[in-house]
Design goal:
The chain is α+β, with helices and mostly antiparallel strands. The chain has a five-stranded mixed sheet. The two termini are about 25 Å apart.
């Protein structure tokens, strides 16, 4: 099956560590879970799977976890790693997603982009404004003694920049108009995004990553 997927987070957690409730936009006593949902253009949507996010301070205090009834094998993992586990589980069950979407919590780490690309998964991820990127592929030095890992960028290359600066100053984006899309109707009204199209190559270890 092929359709657009969306990561959604539902929140309710402990009194000592309030978290941001994604449904209200407020800090509250919350439990954080990562969800993989499935949707089609025909307005069919369903929840495929979900997993609990355990904060690192809770994971390091196993006695506290036992008092709260948390299983011993549940430990801290970043939410983007949980998302990859859910995606892998869906693939193992024969589910194929045309597109996968996620918010900034998942779009911030480059490793999440790289793993989705390695799996051949098309995706649309929100990234923070200080996410570093190129608009075109920089050239690498090809000297043999540099090796596969130590190869550096040629000096005459486009400068890497934050996505905020690229959108504001790059001709690729300045010559475009923003296109508005409606995502859903929420408790506080309509939620949507504005989009421009262009190539973005993210940075990893001072070299471009294929994202």
């Amino acid at each position: 099956m092929s359709a657009k997927a969306d990561w959604r987070r539902e929140i309710r957690l402990n009194r000592q560590a309030p978290r941001r409730d994604g449904s209200t936009g407020k800090l509250d006593n919350c439990v954080v879970t990562t969800h993989l949902a499935y949707a089609t253009p025909e307005d069919f949507h369903t929840l495929l799977s979900s997993a609990l996010f355990l904060p690192e301070d809770w994971s390091n205090d196993r006695e506290r976890c036992r008092r709260a009834g948390i299983l011993e094998d549940l430990v801290y993992r970043p939410k983007w790693r949980i998302a990859l586990e859910l995606h892998q589980e869906a693939q193992a069950n024969g589910i194929r997603l045309a597109w996968l979407t996620a918010d900034e919590f998942y779009g911030r780490p480059v490793e999440f982009h790289l793993e989705l690309s390695r799996r051949g998964q098309q995706y649309l991820l929100e990234v923070p404004r200080n996410f570093w990127s190129w608009c075109r592929q920089p050239e690498l030095l090809h000297k043999a003694h540099h090796g596969a890992v130590g190869r550096r960028l040629k000096r005459q290359n486009p400068l890497i920049s934050t996505v905020e600066n690229l959108i504001a100053h790059s001709p690729i984006f300045r010559q475009q108009t923003w296109v508005a899309y409606l995502i859903k109707e929420g408790e506080k009204g309509a939620r949507g995004l504005e989009s421009q199209g262009g190539t973005a190559l993210s940075q990893r270890s001072r070299r471009p990553a294929d994202t």
